[in-house]
Amino acid sequence: MTTVLAAGVVGYSRLMTADEAGTLVQFKTHRKELIEPKTGEHSGRVVKLIGDGTPSQHRQGVDMYQSRMIPMLYIRIVLSARWLA
Question: pTM for the complete prediction?
Fold first, then answer.
């Protein structure tokens, strides 16, 4: 069985309008340091990079879920801390 996940960034257009260069740097950093390594750790592979999306393929649904939850929670905590500062 193969599971395919197409994930994107909520508010990507708004972030790009406010700070295009900064948004691209942050997104590329998160993708390289979090999303791609976690995808590989959980039997997955990033299929293609599409703007703010990173479609990925996994052997099982649980692998897909685990590969995305850690990066998503980390990014949310980091962004929340910046907004509150």
Answer: 0.67
